[in-house]
Design goal:
Blueprint (H helix, E strand, L loop, with lengths): L4 H5 L1 H13 L8 H13 L4 E5 L3 E8 L5 E7 L26 H18 L4 E8 L7 H7 L2 H4 L4 E8 L7 E2 L3 E4 L1 E10 L3 E2 L9 H19 L6 E10 L5 E2 L2 E10 L2 H21 L3 E10 L2 E3 L1 H15 L4 E2 L11 H7 L2 E7 L28 H16 L9
Parallel strand pairs: 3-4, 3-5, 5-16, 6-15
Antiparallel strand pairs: 1-2, 2-4, 6-16, 7-14, 8-12, 8-13, 9-11, 10-12
Helix pairs in contact: 2-4, 4-11, 7-8, 9-11
The structure holds zinc ion (2 copies).
């Protein structure tokens, strides 16, 4: 592994920042303390800062030389609304909030890179250090873009990274094309007619209709979608009724749809609506159909992905970069940035959990698990990757021969 020495020397300080953020998790658009920590560090290192971009987002702007070229490096800062069960020293001090996705580590890795870049400045152009709020469902990336991130601060390409538990430390995974799924949610209310449960013929039972709809929806992925494409339709909640002897007025179906292309989402939504409406009509019931598109599929751009993979290989060696990593059905709002700009999102191995300090919970070290903790061994690896990416993208022109 070819880590940058001054970054390795700086490990203790970056780890302290990471653990401080871990101990003070903040949810979507509430990252006031976290963004303050980020902004103060950047300013202390002489990096001009824009605060409040997309709510609680922070942008560091590091210029050197005269080139117009610019690169965006993005980290997310928010935590999750869940209770941490680790009891080590840096466990969450905020009841019901936890950095269970490692965004504390993402923020710290980018700060580590910012510190080095501000000192050594071995590049020609602008490095935009993007610290975004609200990745966990809040669409912070989209909000930063709407707030002028790319209009006011033009950049050629943008890059993101997520720690990946269960994959060895010192490895990277990436792939061109679709890498993470689009996430969407639906809420469908079946409106029937309430009655005494002993007199079903006097009502329209919405529960029977809801069950028919939920079962028929399962034919969409198996019968309507191409078998060569991946998609998931999960009904995750059914709510209806309040008594054993009452047929209720309505029943609600709630769930999620995931796929790797917008065309597939269009197909699933169209078929879900048709099945819901026609099934309800067959039973003399009605439906209110709501389908909400959250995050689009995350599609890596081929050229930037090849470039990023090359930089990864220069850091961890050829054998430790999987440039055709298997995509995941998880979703990620960096997808909005990749719709607006060319770029690449990557996974960095977080190990299998052995790194955790004494007092960690007994659960696996998986994302969104109450026993999770970001692996601090990644800090210099991720920071080195960020630095080499920026230096390679904004390579200084070789001095003209006299
Ligand atoms: Zn997450
Ligand atoms: Zn995450």
């Amino acid at each position: 592994m070819k880590l940058i020495d001054p970054i390795v020397q700086f490990h203790a300080e970056i780890q302290q920042i990471r653990r401080d953020i871990h101990a003070h998790p903040e949810l979507c658009y509430e990252e006031h303390r976290t963004s303050e920590v980020v902004a103060q560090k950047l300013q202390a290192w002489g990096i001009p800062v824009v605060r409040g971009l997309g709510g609680t987002g922070v942008l560091g702007i590091l210029k050197n030389g005269n080139s117009e070229r610019a690169i965006g490096l993005r980290a997310d800062m928010d935590a999750l609304p869940m209770q941490e069960i680790n009891t080590f020293a840096h466990t969450s001090q905020h009841e019901g909030k936890m950095h269970a996705c490692g965004h504390d580590g993402h923020t710290a890795m980018l700060l580590g890179a910012a510190h080095y870049l501000s000192q050594y400045k071995d590049f020609d152009g602008t490095v935009y250090l993007i610290f975004q709020p609200a990745e966990e469902g809040g669409g912070g990336a989209r909000r930063m873009i709407e707030d002028g991130l790319f209009d006011k601060y033009p950049m050629d390409a943008v890059f993101g990274m997520h720690n990946w538990p269960g994959v060895a430390v010192g490895t990277f995974g990436v792939t061109a094309g679709p890498m993470m799924a689009s996430s969407n949610e639906f809420e469908v209310v079946v409106r029937g007619k309430g009655a005494h449960a002993a007199q079903p013929h006097k009502g329209i039972d919405p529960i029977i209709v809801a069950i028919q709809i939920a079962q028929s929806w399962q034919t969409i992925v198996s019968r309507n979608a191409s078998p060569l494409e991946s998609a998931v339709l999960s009904v995750t909640q059914i709510h209806s009724g309040s008594a054993t002897n009452v047929i209720p007025d309505d029943a609600t179906l709630i769930g999620t749809v995931r796929a790797f292309s917008t065309a597939m989402i269009d197909l699933i939504e169209k078929r879900m609506k048709a099945i819901a409406e026609h099934t309800a009509a067959a039973f003399d019931a009605q439906v209110d159909f709501q389908f909400k598109r959250n995050y689009p599929p995350l599609i890596n751009h081929a050229k930037e992905t090849a470039f990023a993979a090359e930089v990864m290989r220069s850091v961890v060696g050829n054998d430790n970069v999987d440039a055709q990593v298997e995509p995941t059905m998880g979703a990620e709002d960096f997808a909005f940035m990749l719709q607006a700009k060319p770029g690449c999102y990557a996974f960095i191995g977080n190990g299998d959990g052995d790194h955790r300090d004494m007092g960690h919970g007994l659960g696996p070290c998986n994302l969104h698990n109450p026993s999770y903790d970001f692996n601090d061994d990644l800090l210099p690896i991720g920071a080195t990757y960020w630095v080499r990416l920026a230096e390679a993208h904004l390579k200084k022109a070789t001095q003209a021969a006299i």
